[in-house]
Amino acid sequence: MNKETILVVEDEPDIAEIIEYNLAREGYRVRVIDDGETALDRILRDSPDLVLLDLMLPGLDGLELCRRLKEDPVTRPIPVIMVTAKGEESDVVLGLGMGADDYVAKPFSPRELTARVRAVLRRGRVKSAGDPRERVILGDVVVDAGRHEVLAGGEPVRLTATEFRLLHVLAGHPGRTFTRDQLLSRVIGESVAVTDRNIDVHVRMIRKKLGPRRELIETVRGVGYRCRDDL
Ligand code: CA
Fold it and tell me: How far is the CA of 2 from the centre of ligand 1 (A)?
């Protein structure tokens, strides 16, 4: 039994109960708080292993709570999964930009929820917040930053320098969704004047070059891109 503590911030009792039931069944210790102010106090006091954060809260809303958690060096390492309503993609983009680790959109299945929680906790354990590992292996795709080489099924894939950096960032954090802004600043740098459409162009080129492994990079509609974590 893992006994990691998850703090659930959710003001709708029915949803909170479903979340609590399913996470407790997976062996997690679960605490439910129904408002943002109290949640902030509890997080500072108890430092849970993960925060599951509803964005629509009375008083201090989820995005503001997320911003405060990610601004404070003490609480920054605590992973945050946002729980969003359908059609809140702009909030998702904002939240990921603030440093939230992932999100699930309502209505979600218990399986989807527990899979996300497990994946984010696992990523936290391998400490993927910084630079991706030098050599990343996903299925039969190898991204090797040391040798500046990508192999797909043993065959070299010829990428431009920008395409390589982009694939390395995505593949180095499987399952993590990046917004176009985040990819831009990590891959191209802040100084170059480009629009976020360029990221789409680079992704398209990488997919084309990956051929049958093109599905490695998933489009997250209205948000950005992520690399699959089930390979
Ligand atoms: Ca709510």
Answer: 28
